[in-house]
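Researcher: Batch entry, complex prediction.
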Amino acid sequence: MTGFDRHLQTFGALILAALWVLPLAYAIWTAIHPAAYEAHFVLNAPLTTDNFVKAWNAAPFARYFLNTFVLVTAILAAQFILCTLAAYAFARYRFPGRGFLFFLVLLQLLVMPDILIVENYRMIHSLGLVDTITAIGLPYAASGFGIFLIRQTFLTIPTELDDAARIEGAGPLTILWRVYVPLARPTYLAYGLVSVSHHWNNFLWPLIVTNSVETRPVTVGLSIFSTIDAGVEWSVINAATLMTSGPLLIGFLLFQRQFVQSFMRAGIK
Amino acid sequence: MLAFSLKSVAASAAIALASALPAGAVDLQFYFPVAVGGGAANTIQSLTDEYLAAHPDVKIDAIYSGSYQDTITKVITAARGGNAPQLSVALSVDMFTLIEEDMIVPFDDYLTSDEDKAWLAGFYPAFMENSQTGGKTWGIPFQRSTPVLYWNKQAFAEAGLDPETPPATWEEMVEMGQKLTKKDANGNVTQWGVRIPTSGFPYWLFQGLTTQNDVIVANNEGNKTNFDDPKVVEALQYLVDLSGKYGVMEPGIVEWGATPKAFFEGQTAMMWTTTGNLTNVRTNAPFDFGVAMLPAGKRRGAPTGGGNFYLFKGTSDAQMRAAVDFIQWITAPTQSAKWTMATGYVAPRPETWETDTMKAYAAEFPPVLVARDQLEFAVAELSTYENQRVTQIFNDALAAAITGQKDAATALKDAQAQAEAILKTYR
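Model: Structure tokens for the complex:
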């Protein structure tokens, strides 16, 4: 009975895995074969790299990759610093208005970022930052989700460690840096993954707030292939998609074990 | 004291900035969407560069703004944020939305000389229908298209039909479609007769049918629809019957994006789609194909589609004049011919078709002329106030009838009632 159960589970898992991998497999298939084989799955179909070349030349992707890389790194750095400090304050300090302020932070989780686009734009414009990478990242620097997540992790850390550090003569920032941050590492890793993949894939806000090749991320380059008036060239689109999501996929495969573990430890499902 | 010195610093900085620019220099931002492949964005960029080289006193920043949908979002956001571009290409059907948002200015104020007026009269009237309302011109046609019928000559020959004669009427399309529909031994269809895509924005191609049935779905003021007219019902019934009663089209919602592919792979012998696909079909169809006007019902007919130039509020007179000058330049025959050959869009001015380049192109590839000739029978694409909502209501009604949830008459009657509720405040 248990043996049967286990086989059933394995079988179920395999089916789910196959379903999950199917779109990716199709993307790879169409990307490395000529357009004529988009729906003809024959083993001896000729291989080609033309689709990638075509996709790469359709937009200044080298610059876009650099922009995206700068963008996600800057956002992540800003989020880590701001969220850590805010989370530490919410977790370990008592001050007037703490409950209300934390409520405001949580409220941010409930608001769809898209409905704030006009307000954000107005703000960015009044700061004179339109068409800069800073403008893309700024609205996301203070992340309610990050503050909440890191605060919850900090709360699980025993205050005895605090006290011990204080006896050793450590100040508040030293305690944060030497005690809290190291113990919350899995949370940082998990949150970092979510943040990087979200901002890597973000499209609408960057498109609206930027105007030039020097500031635009890869997703804007990718959008040049959504040409509904002229029919869809799946092979080139898929080549471009693989190319732009490639760094994320490779990163995930390399650090897969750490990611999965950190998710389990951080309790994000 | 501090405030004073700050002010004087700012003032001197402003003077320094102003003096750094050449006298009379004009800065323009120009948003453009791209809806066809083949490097359309590069073509616009190189045309703009060409203009700049000839006009050193103007600076135009041509900004690619995604799809049409993205563009309208970007334009409206920027305008509300106090940073509207001076000119933008956006869907011709967005005219009423932009007027209602009070974001655009009519071209009439800047086209005052007789020469300018003659220029304005030089566009195909079918394209101007979506560009003018209330006696004013709000848009200048640029990347405009219209749907046509593509047919597979090889499939026609195999079915015993004359490969050079496409269907000219609704009846012929059904008759030919029935001969062209092929089934395998199990009774599964391997090749359909015709394919009229109905996903996403079915109203557009459906407007072909309504026009052919001699009825207009919305008035020119954009505040009254005509969805429940018996002739509209009749047109919808014909569309439903194509896959029901006549069995010449795949039942259910037919995907827009997959249609050219289905045509190339012989899953359908005819398709209705935009002229914007012409270059794509020419490159990828593995057989001889023909392009024809949509078949006639009571008359010939088709909607127009695509994007217009708009002028945005909040900028100086000098900028507006420079923007209008740029638009006049880019729609002039030489530039327009380049644009048409690069994309497949229909050149919006008859004079463009008289240039030697276009004549040579048409001689080599006659199908490009079909869309132009069809303009004589074309009408404005459905466009009303609250366009997104009204169009969505219409699309939903069409989808309900196509999938058989409602009969054609009920679906359209419900849609008309909903559209009325929205539009009656605009009369």
